[in-house]
Structures are given as C-alpha cells and as structure tokens.
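[job 4471] stage=fold_predict status=RUNNING
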Amino acid sequence: MKLKFSLTFLLAVVASFAFFAFAPKADVYTVDVTKSTITWEGKKFSGSHAGFVNLTSGTLGFNGKKLTQGGFIANMTTIKTMDGGTKPNAGLDKHLKADDFFGVEKFPAANFVIKKVSGNGANVNVTGDLTIKGVTQSVTFPASVVWGADNTVTATAEKITIDRTKFGVKYKSKSLFADLGDNFIYDEFTIGVKLVAKK
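[job 4471] inference complete, writing structure tokens
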C-alpha cells in the first residue's frame, strides 16, 4: 500500500513538472513609447476638455499571435490639455496635477496590468487592473491587435471609460455633491490607448 502511494505521488510530481516545463512561454514585445499614445477626454455640463499623457514604459505578451499579458505605465506628471488638438490650457493642467484631481506629486505614475484576454483574431476584450492615485480597480474594454509587416504589433483601445470617483477623484462630482447645480464635472472620463510594440 505504501509502495502504491509512493508511486502515485511520484507520477503526480513528474506530471506537474512536465506541465510547467512544456507550458508555452509568452513572447514579450516592448512598447515603443515614442510611437505610442495615451489620450483622454473629460466632460462637464458646459463643455469638455481633452489631452494626452506620456507613456513611461509598457510590454505586450503573446502566445503565437494571441495577446495573453502585458501592461503599461503612464507618467501622470506629463498631463497635458490640448483642446481641439491645438489649444493648450496650462491652468487646467496645473489643476489636474493637484490633489483635487490626480495628485501627481504623491502619485506620479498610473499603471495598467492585463489579467484576462478573451476573443480571437484582431478584436478582443481585455480585462485588467488599473491603478490611479494608489487605488486599483478592474476595468474591461474592447481592443484591436494588428500585426505589421515590419514585425511590430499595434494594440489599440479607442475608448476606455473610467469612473474617476472610484479612484478618489471627487472634485465637483454631481453624484457626491448635490448642491453643484450646473457647475459639475461628469464622473466618467475616457482614455484612448495605442501601444506599438516590437520584440
């Protein structure tokens, strides 16, 4: 009986080793931050503002051509407003960097880590952990993955909707402050992410 148990245990150990030894290893592609972008848009009752944030780094991992892992880090100290693509707003930039909004002195980076990818081909759904102001929340969004002839891969999420209040950004939130009248900012803002990567 003891011998039978020992043999069963040994077979289980060997099977486990074989599984991990031959599990496919993801090919990791490094994001080119000079070719990649993060854009944002926030809305209030009387209008909207848009701009961008610079990327610090990022990676994408693939099994074959299937996206399986990855993520990116954004430099929140580089928040820039460019309404209409050409109109800077230095005053708003300063406010967005303040504690009322993203508190970039204390939280200079935001990051996203992929946890799950579903779907096949160029169109997928991505779920991952987004961290802003030290708070992590799960977000899910559609994305496209396109392979180029130059061995680069471009992963694009045109519209990721984020509820800022879940990350402690509560300034002029109508859902939290009932006496704002028309002087409120919508809780949800959107970001667009384009990651160009190469092995």
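[job 4471] summary: Strands lie at 27-31, 37-44, 47-63, 66-83, 87-88, 109-118, 123-132, 135-147, 152-163, 185-198.
[job 4471] exit 0
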